[in-house]
UniProtKB/TrEMBL annotation:
<feature type="transmembrane region" description="Helical">
    <location>
        <begin position="77"/>
        <end position="94"/>
    </location>
</feature>
<dbReference type="Pfam" id="PF01925">
    <property type="entry name" value="TauE"/>
</dbReference>
<dbReference type="InterPro" id="IPR052017">
    <property type="entry name" value="TSUP"/>
</dbReference>
<feature type="transmembrane region" description="Helical">
    <location>
        <begin position="208"/>
        <end position="229"/>
    </location>
</feature>
<keyword id="KW-0472">Membrane</keyword>
<dbReference type="GO" id="GO:0005886">
    <property type="term" value="C:plasma membrane"/>
</dbReference>
<feature type="region of interest" description="Disordered">
    <location>
        <begin position="120"/>
        <end position="139"/>
    </location>
</feature>
<dbReference type="InterPro" id="IPR002781">
    <property type="entry name" value="TM_pro_TauE-like"/>
</dbReference>
<feature type="transmembrane region" description="Helical">
    <location>
        <begin position="48"/>
        <end position="65"/>
    </location>
</feature>
<keyword id="KW-1003">Cell membrane</keyword>
<keyword id="KW-0813">Transport</keyword>
<keyword id="KW-0812">Transmembrane</keyword>
<protein>
    <recommendedName>
        <fullName>Probable membrane transporter protein</fullName>
    </recommendedName>
</protein>
<feature type="transmembrane region" description="Helical">
    <location>
        <begin position="146"/>
        <end position="169"/>
    </location>
</feature>
<keyword id="KW-1133">Transmembrane helix</keyword>
<comment type="similarity">
    <text>Belongs to the 4-toluene sulfonate uptake permease (TSUP) (TC 2.A.102) family.</text>
</comment>
């Protein structure tokens, strides 16, 4: 850590605080944290440093919203996510930083456009309103598509948040169901990524030492997000999530 300047450490600390806030308030906003980490650290190595920070935020989010998860949705997503994580691991073996950023940025902007187009058709029913019957063929196809993209993007750049945010919005999730389902999803997925990241050399003793200093800043961000979420209107919440996704996509696409 003695190789970092004061402003670089301050930027990493602020980005870690934003991770905590995004996990308990506006999922997808941590794409800004991703951009900050990639600006201070080499883009490829930054993913390994950021992963434990994200897991810490996931743990805090699960503690707060664990009762609001919609497990049928999670179970539909996980098989496709596993395929995406495997594809992302293979991609990371040969892709350089520019290829990673361009690919993820293009995917996020495409998904944001699709979500906005779908929302013009009218409000989507929430999962609780859909009943207990089996999902339609279209819903299964959508879950698989978003699952693969979410697994791929979270493996190569820790950028699965916006993809899954768009899926949960398109599925009609309200705030608490959105945050509870997202919290469990990313705790399970990010934890499962650790062996792959270690194998790729993205997590090592040096990265964990930096994580030990930065993880303390996740807690105040999570507390701030928990205090703010009850004051955010549902429509404003949806717009913030989509806006954060677009900004994150542009940041990655434009480098």
């Amino acid at each position: 850590m003695d190789t970092f300047s004061l402003w670089q450490l301050a930027a990493l600390a602020a980005a870690s605080t934003l991770v905590g806030f995004s996990k308990t308030a506006v999922s997808g906003a941590n794409t800004i944290s991703l951009a900050v980490f990639a600006a201070v650290l080499p883009a490829r190595e930054s993913t390994g440093v950021l992963l434990p920070i994200l897991i810490a935020g996931d743990v805090l989010a699960v503690l707060v919203y664990r009762r609001h998860a919609h497990w049928p949705t999670l179970l539909r997503l996980f098989p496709a996510v596993a395929v995406g994580v495997a594809a992302g691991t293979v991609f990371m073996m040969w892709a350089d930083d520019d290829a990673v950023r361009t690919s993820i940025g293009a995917i996020l902007l495409l998904m944001a456009g699709v979500t906005l187009w779908r929302r013009r058709e009218g409000p989507q029913p929430s999962p609780d309103e859909e009943g207990s019957g089996p999902p339609s063929r279209g819903e299964r196809l959508k879950a698989r598509s978003y699952g693969v993209l979410g697994g791929f993007t979270t493996m190569v750049a820790n950028a699965g948040g916006p993809v899954m945010s768009l899926y949960l919005l398109s599925a009609g999730f309200r705030k608490l169901g959105f945050l509870g389902t997202s919290a469990w999803f990313f705790l399970i997925v990010n934890t499962s990524k650790v062996p792959f990241s270690v194998g790729l050399g993205l997590i090592d003793a040096r990265s964990l030492l930096l994580d030990a200093a930065l993880v303390l800043f996740v807690v105040p961000g999570a507390l701030l997000g928990r205090a703010c979420i009850g004051r955010i209107n549902q429509k404003i919440f949806d717009r913030i999530v989509i806006g954060a996704t677009v900004l994150g996509g542009l940041q990655l696409l434009l480098g």
